[in-house]
Amino acid sequence: MSNAIDSLSEAVRGSVITADDPDYDDARVVYNAMHDRRPRAVVRCMDSADVMATVVAAAESGADLAVRGGGHSVPGFGTVDDGLVIDLSVMNNVSVDPVNKIARVGGGATWGDVDHATYPFGLGAPGGIISTTGVGGLTLGGGIGYLTRGLGLSIDNLISADVVLADGRQVTASNDQNQDLFWALRGGGGNFGVVTNFEFQLHEVGDIVGGPLFYEVDDAPTVMAFYRDLIADAPEELGCFFAWQIAPPLPFVPEDRVGDLFCALVTCWNGPHEEADAVLQPFFDVAEVKAQHVGPAPFPALNSAFDGLVPKGMQHYWKADFVTELTDEAIASHVEHGKKTPYVSSTMHLYSINGAAQRVGADETAFGHRDKNFAPVIAACGRTPLTTKQTSNG
Questions:
Q1: What is the pLDDT of residue 391?
Q2: CATH T-level fold of 207-382
């Protein structure tokens, strides 16, 4: 392996960082501190040629290979013990064609990079609810976010991808080239290659109207049932998800309620602003709103609003599923367990994935959940491994 690393250092323009380098510990760290791995080397690739050389080096040496895009690495796929890590973080460029409404996005970009580049043109692409999320990781798994009901999943807006294959060749996958690979990349779960560039179709996304509304925990059954019924046939320009949230110290949260557990609905209206009041008024009527921050805002502001709750270096454990129905029994179960939310960064989010996402045929991509209406995601996050004794004070 040492010979392979020496050869790789000569073959790439980027840095090949090993345990002998002073910045090794910084280079090996991923966003999710639960995964504390020690790669043989981290290769900070500058371009596709660097990625190709690293893939070949891993194959020839028999080393395990991990690919790191934005770096969240919740399941730990962005790092590896005693192997090579392809770090794409330097390849985070975003190029916008405002006439054709297309963005070319580097494999190491985050959704914050995309939002920053596209917002000045009044454009955007559907991608998540946390701006530090990597474009690669979210997109290749499907891509659920605020704009899903109106614009589809991230993969539904993917036009093409440049992919380095296991043999070191780079190809383009699209509806016209390498169609089988393009199908698999869109929701297939990974290990098909290293995507060095994504090409997305953009849409008109500028200033939205929305934000979070906090309700008492005792109102959760009513709020969840309201959400279930309303989102079934709401205008597709409305994005919304349910959440449990221990109130952080924010200006719109009453000082005496900071640290209290609430249930919440987080809204995003990407339609005509003059229609926003009528669309959002039912959220204020369903139960007494104890705190809220709903109004016009740049889409990047909403898409980064929760970044502070999940900073780098926390330990994350996530579980997720896809469900067709949110039954009364499911609501009761969510209420029972949601009351045990242990820490300000822990939560359960219930995303709606109907609307535009369901108009894509089940066989058109590898994403296998087109018939589902909701995606519940449970995230246990803390500075130390969570135990049953921990409270909102962490």
A1: 36
A2: Vanillyl-alcohol Oxidase; Chain A, domain 3 (3.40.462)
